[in-house]
Amino acid sequence: MAALSLERPRLALHVQARVHVADGSPHVVLHDPRTRLVARISLDDWRLLREADGTRDLDALCLAAARLGIDPSEEELVRLFSELDEAGLLADGLAPPLREPPVPAPAPPAPETPLEVLPDFTLTCDGRGACCRFYGSVGFAPLEALRARVAAAELALPLADADLFTPLSGAQIDAPDEPRAVALVDGRCAFLDGGARCALHARGGPYAKPAACRIYPAAYVHDGGAVRASLAPECACVFSSVGRPSGAGLVPEGAATYGALDPAAGLLVVPDPVPLSLHRTAPREALRPWSRAVHDVARRADRDAAGWAWALAQAIEEAGALVDPDRAPCGLEAARPWLAAFREAITAEADAQDAHRGASDLSRVVARWAADALARVDPLAAPAQARDEGFYLAALAFGHRLAIEGRPLCVGLRDRATRILVARAMAAVPAPLDPAAAHPLALVEAATRNLGLAGYAPI
Ligand code: SF4
Known about the structure:
Number of helices: 14
Structural class: alpha+beta
Oligomer: single chain
Strand order of the largest sheet: 4-3-2-10-11
Shape: globular
Radius of gyration: 23 Å
Strand content: 5-15%
Largest sheet: 5 strands, mixed
Bound molecules: iron/sulfur cluster
Helix content: 25-40%
Distance between the termini: 51 Å
């Protein structure tokens, strides 16, 4: 008689399930970000896993499977759950309640808080959908997902309506306001059509797509004195827009205060004090002029961006305080262990991507491109991409991005110096035939977040 090792199994809450259609074949990828383990299961197995919510034992799972019309044998069911359990992807019994103990939410900025917008930048989208082809988790709020499912009935999508969304983590939606992750077709959002247009936008206008897509690539940060509007430099369009004045603004036309922003736009907050290194902090008000000064120096693009960012971290660490960015020297030899760590992380990720993503999937292509480039080229000897690199650091600094990622500012600076070097190595080898490859730094920035590589940094 077959038996389950767990009495009432469920997918562990930290595991991320994503529906993929790769080279025409649908499947579900289970990713454990703690161990970087990736398991591939069929859609039918995923439907069974959704029934395993921590309340059903083997008998109840067999009945649930029969109701779905899947009807596996008891042995098959036990084998599936045993394999997932051995991989550390399951838990037993009901999930603990998701509700956090009540803590006061940080007060939102007053509507009249001034906006400070990244100077001399407007966005010209190239309409090639690079940003819709790269992210493993495109989140939809419940109402956005519902509207998208209604729209899907009129679109020729390669998936049934019920398989279009998965919970962001685990296999069940536990709270009604939880966002959902959309299915990916060869790494592309399922709603990106054959002409690289958003089918939701084409059908219903900008408010038919998720708020995150509507706002992208703008990023809003409250620093105590103002809300800064900068951007996430993760798309080739961002870099190709530099110096082109006629694109779209990062805030609605005429907006001068926080109250004029889209209410659905997310807002990041600069902590006070700001962690500079493992032992030192600085008051938040000191960051405002410093970030602006870093922006101004970086935008001049008159020095080696990677060496400068690295040396700036060193100078801050030695001084225990924010230092004049214009006076930091350049130096990169100490970057080698960081480069080695990045190479190890991206190579492991490239191998994992090869196993479960289709050949044209941009995430897979980029991971392999970066891994191969770092194996063939010494990034410290590769030519700089001065214009991209200067803009990259300027945009990140203006939006206080280097100081708000849950780690000290010095780590943020060294990490970005390393990413710049990785992009140089990629630019030094033949690029994939994809318009997104025109600006490798955008892809490194996106890949580090999308593929969960940020923890590579040997702090
Ligand atoms: S919903 Fe539309 S804009 Fe958003 S990722 Fe999908 S295709 Fe792109």
